[in-house]
Amino acid sequence: MRDGTADVVVVGAGVIGASVAWHLAALGVRDVLVVDRGAAPGEGSTGRATGGFRAQFGTSINVRLSLLAREKLRRFRDEVGADPGYRACGYLWLARAPGELDILRTAQRVQHEAGLAEARMVEPPRIAELNPAASLDGVIGGAFCPSDGFLRPLDLLRGYLDGARRLGARVRLGEEVTALPRRPGGRIEKVRLAGGEIACGTVVNAAGAWAGTLGRLAGVEVPVAPLRRQVACTAPCPALPEDMPMTLWPGDGFHLRVRDGRVLLLRPTKGAADPFRAEVEDAWIDEVRSIAADRVPALAGVELLGRPLRDVARRARAARPRGRLREPGAGERLLRARRHARSRAGGARGRADRAWRAALARRAGAPADPVRGRRAPRRSRASLKSCFRPSGR
Ligand SMILES: Cc1cc2nc3c(=O)[nH]c(=O)nc-3n(C[C@H](O)[C@H](O)[C@H](O)COP(=O)(O)OP(=O)(O)OC[C@H]3O[C@@H](n4cnc5c(N)ncnc54)[C@H](O)[C@@H]3O)c2cc1C
Predict the structure, then answer these.
(1) Where do the domains of the chain lie, and which CATH numbers do they carry?
(2) For ligand 1, atom 53, which residue shows the shortest CA distance?
(3) What is the average per-residue pLDDT within 253-263?
(4) N or C end: fewer C-beta atoms under 10 angstroms in the chain?
């Protein structure tokens, strides 16, 4: 391996570029170089992602791909030596029109055929158990899958990138790829950066939403179009618990989850003039605030921050114990420290959870312990599993 050359140049240090680098290095490709224009890995979409993971899709290929990804998440710690933060808290879809319910039902048939057996249609009483904070006004039914849930995108990225480095891959940050000159036969012969050139055998386009732009540097049309997403984030608040399922209203795409003590609210932005714009618009926040107050009354009055989500994710990461994983022993020690910290935090989380249920019960005029009076206890993983175990199979 020499400066100015590489067997493979991976453009993009997002989660995909990091994964490609790790897999290549694990397969024995020794001279892998990851290049990104950001000052740190994950400055594209990965550092801004909500961290939702699901297999509830409407096409067989997406379901099967997600099932493979889920297995990968479960093996990640053993294979890569880092914790991807996968937690099976579920995805809960709420339909408010017969057409929406039909779409969920059709998608679920596809999911079952593709092997996602535990996805279930749910009626309003079950929805109230799965997420007592969601208003049932106008809700006629929904779909739920308990093995969907959450992961930590930056932890996944860092796990792969640190693992790739341990296997010999190099990473160059703060360097934009500006040209991909080709040989007469068509192969790319080098990668031109603002600060020099790298002769290479292969280039991997892992530029995410910029993959089309990067492809054009080599005269190749890559059919990737950016889709703008905005995220609103509340101030830290105990209104909802961390293990609340991702809850989605397919009618308009509004959805929410809780992460690091804050509630994240999302809704697709239609027809964005500049899909790469990363600021959150005031008008969009106002819209989302009123939708949230209407559909999740516990959030009425909770302060919303228009700050880009990335800042919040980075601060939360900085507050958690972490370090570079250089060898499996160190990785295991770090995981143990995290598990310990999480189990200590579990008591506080449990108290917040009980307070949340009691507050909801008070609002509804029910007894202070709403859990006891219910048909089935909710939100423990074991109870979800037994509740959705297909009978007779
Ligand atoms: C607000 C938001 C919420 C999301 N929520 C979810 C979710 O809940 N669940 C989910 O599964 N997905 C979610 N996504 C999508 C997810 O974040 C992306 O699919 C994923 O991160 C893409 O990873 P990537 O590595 O392909 O791209 P990126 O992370 O964008 O990485 C591409 C990298 O390429 C670099 N690059 C581009 N061009 C060049 C160049 N010319 N030279 C050098 N470097 C270059 C960029 O700097 C960037 O770091 C969300 C996305 C957004 C924006």
Answers:
(1) 1-51+153-224+351-387 (3.50.50.60), 310-350 (no CATH)
(2) 45
(3) 96
(4) C
